[in-house]
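Data availability (excerpt). The following record was deposited with the supplementary files.
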Amino acid sequence: MALQTDFIAGAEAENTLQSICYKRGSLQLLDQRKLPLEITYLDIRDASDGWVAIRDMVVRGAPAIAIAAALSLAVEVFNFETFSGTSEDAASFLVKKLEYLVSSRPTAVNLSDAATKLKQVVMQAADTSSKHEDVFQAYIQAAEIMLKDDVTSNKAIGSYGANFLRDHVKHSQQLSILTHCNTGSLATAGYGTALGVIRAVHAEGALKRAYCTETRPFNQGSRLTAFELVHDNIPATLIADSAAAALMKNGRVDAVIVGADRVAANGDTANKIGTYSLALCANHHQIPFYVAAPLTSIDLSLSSGEEIIIEERSAKELLNTHGGLGEQIAASGISVWNPAFDVTPANLIAGIITEKGVITKMGKDAFDIKNFVQNATQQTFV
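Predicted structure:
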């Protein structure tokens, strides 16, 4: 299929690690299961490869999952040698593939949000042209725009977050920030969400130290976040998940910032398992707890976190080392409960940092997220 010049992610110009390497017709994903000891990129040829990569956590992080899914299908249709069918046939093919990709990891709303938007693009293209080539081209271009927009969004989150922390957090001259899981360039198209805020604070010379949890059982903190922090020469310390409360008690944390896989309309937030524990500890020690996420992570169709589907992972991730790939360390026959996420209630969250500003509470109790989202394209809230 003939298209114009190659599109390359704007993030490639940045001096940050890249989980997604893309140009038209080619997609490579950094195999994050092998970090930090080995840097290996896997070729993704079609939506099936993308689905497996997302399910097996080759790529992870809500924004990155959505982009990887969209681009895996873009690569597939770009490389079609033959496709016999109308524009309606092409649209139907793409819609079915998008629905398939959404099933890879159901908790991350960014994935279903991206699929919904891309479905609208292909249906509109099918309505305006009888050629399947036009539908495929419209899809590819829309997927590429999502990649570019994610980088821009992340940088805006970092900027708003850094400015907000400077004005609202005690000891704002030099901040020590605790984060959980991985929310950096490895979890997005580039720069990051919660880790993007830490990057922005560091760039302003206002970061005393970043603390990252190991984030059991898949160790995204010790394997990925620590890797990014060392790569960027950011002053940082790794802690065991169980050390967070003691760290806060010792007065070594000024703020906690985490990412999000889904934010309900009331502000309840699903994020990597262990986030709820950190929020409870932060609340007890009177430390502000923030969520950093793009607007695509907000799901206004859900009234509260009670409606969020929580993915459960393989028992092997607890029974064996290296995320289930290594030697057995637990007793044979023990039962396992391994949820990938938990839900932090809105009352424990001080603010939600987005690419359009920081959503704060009305009074002390409630977020007006719906109004913020509706007005986000007209004005910026801080």
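Summary of structural features: The chain has eleven helices and 16 strands.
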